């Protein structure tokens, strides 16, 4: 029998004795009771020494195990708890542990949509009420990017439980391109977040084509117990997005080497916050940095490059350079024709002078 398990049995037996206020416990009584318990539960019949029990009592009194047991000796003979309600089995959480737990809950509470985090907050509240009458409340010091008006967050909890309990769901969904919503059975395999937007990832029916359904496009969602759940045996969610930025993955498309030139004012942002884990700096120049990525060319990559405006240029491959250049040309063309694009009610803004821009904050 492992020594630590042996010690735990002794501690619990001593604790049970000291909680029994109808009897006075001498050291000899504790030795006898612990010996009986060890024989009954573990078959140990060699007995326990007085020195061992005395060492156990000191250990329970100390902070080594966090017990801080209030064991006292009455009349220099009888052992008991000074606090009649104390027990090592009802050990409260320390103020330090409770503080850390509260900080963790404050972080988790920012993941709205998951009932588990709300329930965890209730658990902490119960601990607070049990251990301390009042706990100082402070404003959170860590903030995540979040959009309170983002549609579809209410579906997160349903989808999460559908994955955990392997349940098929019926979804009424309308993509941005579809004129009408469509209803179908869906087997959710995992949830994916990108740029503060959530996606349910899985397959429709028995077709093993992976779909990413944006939660903000879901119109109705319900669990269907009658339809068997199609278990994921084909995709590894941990490696599925290795070669892309975002969520758009082409199954048969190999990643390409992308060469980008980030100009001087954009270089620090690109260097400190890489576009992808494959990013490497190839060369530093007076005008900026040249970087390489190994990714698939997808919608999210193009959008990321365009977000830098004229501060990032594509060096290669040629087909990506042409896409970015075409998009820039279209943008310039639209600005030139903004008068014809805007409704008449908004054209008044074109004749107004813009106020001086406030100084940009230090970044």
Could you explain how this protein is built, in words?
By secondary structure, this protein is α+β, with helices and mostly antiparallel strands. Among the domains are: 3-89, Arc Repressor Mutant, subunit A (Orthogonal Bundle), CATH 1.10.10; 153-224, SH3 type barrels, CATH 2.30.30; 256-338, Alpha-Beta Plaits (2-Layer Sandwich), CATH 3.30.70. Helices cover 34% and strands 20% of the residues. It has 10 helices and 11 strands. The chain has helices spanning 3-19, 27-42, 50-61, 95-108, 115-131, 156-164, 267-272, 299-306, 318-336, 338-341; strands spanning 71-74, 78-81, 168-173, 182-194, 197-204, 211-214, 218-224, 256-263, 280-285, 288-295, 312-316. The strands form 3 sheets. A 5-stranded antiparallel sheet has the order 6-5-4-3-7. It has a 4-stranded antiparallel sheet with strand order 9-10-8-11. Helix 1 crosses helix 3 (50-61). The two termini are 61 Å apart.
Q: Taking Cα atoms only, what radius of gyration do you get, to the nearest Å?
A: 32 Å
Sheet with the most strands, sense and barrel status: 5 strands, antiparallel
Helix content: 25-40%
Annotation, overall tally of beta strands: 11
* Mean pLDDT across all amino acids: 83
Shape: elongated
Order of helices and strands: HHHEEHHHEEEEEEHEEHEHH
